[in-house]
Amino acid sequence: MHASEQKSLIDAAIETYYDEIRSAVSRRGASSSQATEIVHDLYIALSGKPRALDGARSIKAFLIKAAINLGIDRGRRAAFEARLFAALDAQAIEIPADRTDITNLLDRPRRLACLRAAILELPPQCRTVFVAHRLGSVTKEEIATALGIQRRMVDRHLRKALLHCLDRMDEFDSE
């Protein structure tokens, strides 16, 4: 028998015995939708192996047994995954939530207002350097050239601004 004839035989057999195969799988504990999926998976598996029915004395019995075995394999896999994920869930539950992230998220508008106030408290040239570099992505060399100051002075302004902002944010966090 050629491969195309075998495929036609598989098609005809699944179509003919479809309801009986589904019923047999359902009797073994599969739901109606699971039984349908199992028969579909069986058809796909057999379509990829056209000679699978060679030597089968009863095509109907072969298909029912193959579908039941496929259902058993699915059940074992589902049980294994349930045990695996239950263990992972138990481990995940033991990890404490980071409450500071939630607090920071809820306080974001107030934190931004505090940062804005800290920036406004800076001396004018220090504020200009900080805003240009941190918010405007202007290089230190470009800032030094534009303001007519040395690169070292730009670094000092940045350090002073960062420390001032950090101090203000620490004060905010300790409130």
UniProtKB/TrEMBL annotation:
Alphabetical keyword list: Sigma factor, Transcription, Transcription regulation
GO molecular function: DNA binding; sigma factor activity
UniProt keyword annotation of Transmembrane present: no
Record SUPFAM superfamilies: Sigma2 domain of RNA polymerase sigma factors, Sigma3 and sigma4 domains of RNA polymerase sigma factors
Pfam families in the record: Sigma70_r4_2 (PF08281)
GO biological process: one example: DNA-templated transcription initiation
Spans through the membrane: none
InterPro entries (UniProt xref): RNA_pol_sigma-70-like, RNA_pol_sigma-70_dom, RNA_pol_sigma70_r4_t2, RNA_pol_sigma_r2, RNA_pol_sigma_r3/r4-like, WH-like_DNA-bd_sf
Span of domain RNA polymerase sigma factor 70 region 4 type: 113-165
Assigned protein family: Belongs to the sigma-70 factor family. ECF subfamily.
NCBIfam families associated with the record: sigma70-ECF
Annotated protein name in UniProt: RNA polymerase sigma factor, sigma-70 family
Organism field: Aureimonas altamirensis
Lineage: Bacteria, Pseudomonadati, Pseudomonadota, Alphaproteobacteria, Hyphomicrobiales
